[in-house]
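Its record is set out here:
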Amino acid sequence: MNVPKPRDDLSALAGYHSPQVDVEVRLNTNEAPEAPPIEFSNAVAEAVRKVQWHRYPDRSAGELRSGIAKLHAVGAEQIFAANGSNEVLQTILLSYAGAGRKVLTFEPTYALHTHIARIVGATVVSGQRDEQFGIDPGEAAQMVKQHQPSVTFLCSPNNPTGIVDDPSVVSAVLNEVSAYGGLLVVDEAYGQFAPHSALELLDGNPSLVVTRTYSKTWAMAGARLGYLVGDPRIVDQLEKVVLPYHLDSATQAAGIAALEFIDDMDDRVNTIIGQRTIVEQGLADLGCTVWPSGANFVLFRPPEQNGDQVWSELVDRSVLVRNTASWPRLTGSLRVTIGTEPDNARFLDAMSDILRGS
């Protein structure tokens, strides 16, 4: 029996997966360490009770978009919401990339930028970050000028390195992209943990969009809700491409309810930043190479670059982190999500046992 074949250009692609291992301390997927407050869950439950399940959801997600717009002091027509920021990225690339078009990334960075670009048939051009995983603004601008990609990605704070791009980098790339009508996508999935944002550069520029997610700072990974802020003309194009009624009523209700708990979100962010400092210092004290992070995770390399071995020994101690040891340019490294104070202490104790031979 013949098996249907996918497109030839997809046959060599691997899916994007994160190992799911049964452990006591899970610090591998950059989720928020704790659930939202019970008051949030009660508010969502009350809203869901009012859902007319026999009717399609609000196709425009008007109330949700208005709430997000108010948060960022923009118009609702500048907001596009979708099922996680990954669907936002997919819709951007379906609208502005595709066969015969180029997408520019700066590696190493979030794998789905390249993955989705290739799925839609675009040609991916990869610039390289420096040894400390930063980006030189002049070199970045030159890459844009040379290749004139339809879509250019900057991820800040960058995943998996945690590095926050200097505003000069974003400005330099945006200036080049604007010159020929390209689109710059600044992926700020971890933006609330960082000291500055590309949102400050929007100011009516149609060549810039900034993407955000509810998964991290809002502690809502289970809801799958993300959005972008950009020019209304960009949002209009995305609305042509996205599937109708793609954002269900329950997800919209959860997103609306969350906006009433901004203070809780801010407190959560500040707590995670404080714990991030403790984890960074603890790893440095153990002799690890630690890259400065503006996100809710830390990239580090154990002494002697024995990342695979350390990862396995952590799992033996029921602690799971992300094994990045075999990723390009990340030889021997691991990435740990910032968890609760007890989880972080458990992780550092395990690392001490492993590295000091206890």
About this structure: Residues 83 and 225 are 5 Å apart (CA to CA).
